[in-house]
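[agent] plan:
  1. take the single chain provided in the ticket
  2. run structure prediction with default settings
  3. attach structure tokens to the ticket
  4. add a short note for the reviewer (M.T.)
[agent] executing step 1
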Amino acid sequence: MDPIQIAFFGATNSGKSTLVNAIAGQDVSLVSALPGTTTDPVRKRIELPGIGLCVLVDTAGYGDEGDLGAQRERLTKAVIDSTDVAVLLRSGHPADDEWESMIRKAALKLIVISSEVEKSHILELISDIVPKDDHKFLTGKLVAKGDLVVLVMPQDSEAPKGRLILPQVQVIRELLDRGCTPVCCTPDSLKSTIAGLKGAPALVITDSQVFKFVNETIPADWTLTSFSILLAAAKGDINVFVEGAKAINALKPGARVLIAEACTHVPDTEDIGRVKIPAMLRKRVPDLEAVIAAGNDFPEDLSHYSLIIHCGACVANAALVRSRIRKALLAGVPITNYGIAIAALQGILDRVSLP
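[agent] step 2 finished; step 3 output follows
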């Protein structure tokens, strides 16, 4: 589902940009003998023969003694969390061992290059190590060919004008690919949509923010889930998220909850992560503090939090979500996601079907 993210790490002027340009067959990154030429991660989407759709990431080199060196290394370290395959160019720099150890601890697939011979066979090395096609359907075993599926899709102020949000598009396309018949509606038209059906659908998929309304509107024996829960299963660990949601009932007044967004966006008054979920939590837990972490700003120290609620990660890859799950588990902090948290807060988690 996600393109394979292949990131290139190495000391300043170790040849990362030259290698990325050679693989891409075009000038993706600026190449110069001047130390610190690459200051921010440079990304290039590309289809590699025998590998498929990839994102090549050229990172800023470590060991830069300039004033911005520490900031560049911080940005490079942030890339590790969303990397599927890491390519480390060892050039004899004193920090090579430290960075190799850091990448290995992140449990990434790693290619270590220390010679020109290895560089000339880089595509073969990547092809041998990349994850093979283990594509999982978002809808899992919840549907089969010929099934009718109802999708409830609110178009509030957070939805982009004239477009559907990515999870909705992905699910519709998948249902078509699987030979299903998707029937799309908004919450306002759900009752009339139900009335027009000739029989019960195999599945109802809803936006999590209208979980309660949809649950109360459809017959109790209809199978129900949400876009966010489908993403949680595809990109994260659904069992960890369900277990993490149990911590909601144990939150005490004054608890700190981390709301983790994988993307950055300008929120408005209907924002699900920054407005709606914190409001639902505060109805249960007085003086609860909701801390927002957006984009790469995921805290290194998680010990101050009683719970982490992660977004659906519609624009993030599975590597990033699983990295954050791993960090939460190591810190002993329960973690769940938007859809599962909302279902738990509304008392319908047992009613919801998991893929």
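[agent] step 4 note for reviewer: Residues 4-129 form a domain with the Rossmann fold fold (CATH 3.40.50.300).
[agent] ticket updated
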